[in-house]
Design brief:
The structure is a single chain. By secondary structure, this protein is an alpha/beta fold. The chain folds into 3 domains: 133 residues, Fumarate Reductase Iron-sulfur Protein, Chain B, domain 2 (Orthogonal Bundle), CATH 1.10.1060.10; 162 residues, FAD/NAD(P)-binding domain, CATH 3.50.50.60; 164 residues, FAD/NAD(P)-binding domain. Helix content is 32%, strand content 17%. The chain has 17 helices and 20 strands. The protein has a 5-stranded parallel sheet, with helices on both faces. Strands 10-18-11-12-13 form a 5-stranded parallel sheet. Strand 6, helix 10 and strand 7 form a beta-alpha-beta unit. Helix 5 packs across helix 8 and helix 6 crosses helix 8. The two termini are 26 Å apart. The structure holds flavin-adenine dinucleotide and iron/sulfur cluster (2 copies). Flavin-adenine dinucleotide binds next to helix 9, strand 6, helix 12, helix 13 and helix 16.
Length: 490
């Protein structure tokens, strides 16, 4: 604990952000960093608690609490306060392979569990983490660390999202030769195509991929396992295969005229936008939506990313529909510490919508009942309907007479995911559970097929980047033990 009185002396201060009306002019990240001195003061707020709930990542019956990676938060906060940022970096990297990703997109389970938050504001661990890793990149401290000895063992990782990248990074550093197969044209999974630039600039992902390549990881983009290369071939040619293919089977909506032109799955749309930003020279134009009316089905984080993207594309109206009830607004201390709070959150997309259109775009307990298309099959309107709790099971049921027709030129479906894609699992002879997850043995990442393992959203279900990194790290430890007969990784 660098400064015993820090938590009493300094109030929490967050990194700034460009004003909503300013930042919607482009797709760039809009964070403004605190000065080094102010950042040190924020780190000084950490009390080095006897029981650091922030780092005690646990899944308890009442919910998740703390950092799933068990990041050594009090240690690196202390070192950051002391100005020993390089030392802080080494403690940060001990538990987290990619703090530049989590420092940008993690919802900060650590902060929800911070003891300082019980009776005040939590320590700004999330932003401190980002400050440490970005200082490291800027100062050239992130140098390739090539393993001195190779084990002679080969591992194929299928999918290059955070789970696949974390596993590849760890296995490579243990001296195994790792090939990462990725069906998209660029590695990164949802970090590249999914999470929008505003939250995570793509050069941040590319920078990390380059470093991993320099360290010896081989990326094979544009190669779909099960199609371009057979699962059986990979199982034969490699000593272990790790499936990190994500949970990309989207939940659809069953409504009249679902086939209208202008209806997209959210990730397909976000991918198309990112692709057009990355490859304008290839003639990939941004979707033309100036002045158009948009509806987003789904009030979660993906829906929020869609809202922000549609606003940047110049839409004239954006409505976001959410089936569930509006969560309660609670003060921090009523949030049920140390659990992740289930309270109303206003994300950057909703903040921007309020600035542009004058109100929050979310309509709770509302869904789409029907779509209306013109003679050319182009989407023209959406009929929404209010929902109320009903029936014996308490499921939401439509309120009769509450239908409303709203103009709609583009409708994005951000209604969640049903699980992994069956064809990839099947290509390796693996099964999917009823919930669409690649089946692994109890308490293990090993599938029932010899040499086959699974991790990330494919195994856990749709989740968070921090959980995917954690899965990849733990799967790598198990694979290392499988290959070598023992493992020093934990
Ligand atoms: C729009 C959106 C926004 C999100 N925002 C956040 C956020 O802000 N914060 C957060 O913590 N989480 C966020 N998430 C969730 C997070 O991105 C995921 O939990 C995480 O990326 C899962 O990592 P993964 O490695 O398991 O899978 P993915 O990131 O999904 O990567 C899987 C990869 O496997 C590839 N693949 C699939 N099949 C094959 C095959 N047969 N052969 C080769 N490659 C294959 C896919 O192309 C993909 O690149 C968001 C999700 C979405 C959809
Ligand atoms: S990974 Fe997430 S939960 Fe863990 S320390 Fe970083 S911001 Fe907190
Ligand atoms: S719970 Fe908060 S104050 Fe305590 S060690 Fe963790 S970050 Fe520091």
């Amino acid at each position: 604990m660098g400064k015993p009185t820090g938590f009493m002396e300094y109030a929490r201060k967050n990194d700034g952000a460009k004003a909503p009306l300013e930042r919607i002019k482009d797709f760039a990240e809009f964070r403004l960093f605190l000065s080094e001195e102010e950042r040190g003061n924020q780190a000084a707020r950490c009390m080095d608690c006897g029981v650091p709930f922030c780092q005690a990542g646990m899944e308890l019956p009442s919910g998740a609490t703390g950092c799933p990676l068990n990041s050594l938060i009090p240690e690196w906060n202390d070192l950051l306060f002391q100005g020993k940022t390089r030392h802080a970096l080494s403690r940060l990297l001990k538990r987290n392979n990619f703090p530049e990703f989590t420092g940008r997109v993690c919802p900060a389970l650590c902060e929800a569990a911070c003891v300082c938050g019980i009776n005040g504001s939590p320590v700004s661990c999330h932003e401190n983490e980002l400050a440490i890793i970005e200082t490291a990149w800027q100062n050239g401290w992130m140098k390739p660390r090539v393993p001195a000895v190779r084990s002679g063992r080969r591992v194929a990782v299928i999918g290059s999202g955070p789970a696949g990248l974390a596993a590849a990074d760890r296995l490579n550093k243990r001296g195994h030769s790792v090939d990462v197969f990725e069906r998209a044209d660029r590695p990164g999974g949802l970090l590249m195509y999914g999470i929008p630039n505003m939250k995570l600039e793509k050069n941040v992902v590319e920078r990390r991929i380059r470093l991993m390549e320099e360290e010896g990881v081989i990326f094979r983009p544009g190669c779909e396992a099960g199609t371009d290369v057979e699962g059986g071939t990979l199982l034969r040619d490699y000593d272990a295969v790790l499936l990190c293919c994500g949970s990309s089977h989207p939940r659809d909506i069953e409504v009249k005229n679902r086939d209208a032109k202008g209806v997209w799955f959210a990730v397909d749309f976000l991918t198309a936008v990112t692709k057009s930003l990355l490859d304008p020279a290839e003639g990939k134009a941004l979707p033309e939506l100036s002045g158009k009316n948009a509806v987003v089905v789904g009030g979660g984080d993906t829906g929020g990313d869609c809202v922000a993207t549609l606003i940047r594309l110049g839409c004239g109206s954006v409505t976001q529909l959410e089936m569930t009830e509006r969560p309660p607004v609670k003060r921090a201390r009523e949030n049920g510490w140390p659990y992740w709070p289930k309270t109303l959150k206003t994300d950057y997309g909703q903040e921007e919508a309020a600035a542009v259109f004058g109100s929050d775009p979310r309509r709770y307990q509302t869904t789409v009942k029907e779509l209306i298309k013109d003679e050319q099959g182009t989407l023209r309107a959406a009929v929404t309907v209010s929902l109320e709790r009903g029936g014996e099971s308490g499921q939401p049921v439509p309120v009769s007479g509450s239908e409303e027709e709203i103009p709609c030129d583009i409708l994005l479906i951000a209604a969640g995911f049903l699980g992994a894609e069956e064809k990839t699992a099947a290509a390796f002879g693996a099964g999917l559970s009823e919930r669409g997850r690649v089946e692994t043995k109890e308490g293990s990442f090993a599938a029932s097929v010899p040499k086959l393992f699974a991790a990330g959203d494919a195994r856990r279900g749709p989740s968070l980047v921090v959980h995917a990194i954690n899965e990849g790290r733990r799967a790598a430890a198990e694979i290392d033990g499988f290959l070598m007969g023992y493992s020093g990784l934990s």
